[in-house]
């Protein structure tokens, strides 16, 4: 079972008042009764807090929370690896 990214849970419960019991890996924004405006706001919050941007309609509306978590984790890992400067021992 995939765990849900803690920031997703925090945003859904805190900002959108989604009951924590409904935040499951297989949940979608539709199943959580998030309308298109809420989904767009969710995408903005995730971008502002985690630096991960995505098309809210394509990624968030039909994706499960497990899909969104995987996307966020991958984007964060990619950003971190790009920020790392390789060190060369050759002169």
From TrEMBL:
Coiled coil: none annotated. InterPro entries: ACP-like_sf (IPR036736), PP-bd_ACP (IPR009081). Residues 1-76 form the Carrier domain. This is Acyl carrier protein.
